[in-house]
Amino acid sequence: MAEIINLSRARKVRAKAEDKARAAVNRVAYGRTKGEKKAAQTEQTRATRLLDGQKLDGDKPTD
């Protein structure tokens, strides 16, 4: 005979597992420290300045 399960409890367990998976994805996407964000912004600014400095005078921006 099959084991009897509580469907309400099974839904709660499944929802909890989905929430944990979603939290793990969010930690990867948004879980950077303030220092890491600042370093990435500084690197982006430096790269932009370096690229702009190497442009020739006749170059037109391609917006």
Automatic annotation (TrEMBL):
Pfam family, one: DUF4169
Protein's recorded name: DUF4169 domain-containing protein
Annotated segments matching region Disordered: 32-63
UniProt biased composition (Basic and acidic residues): 52-63
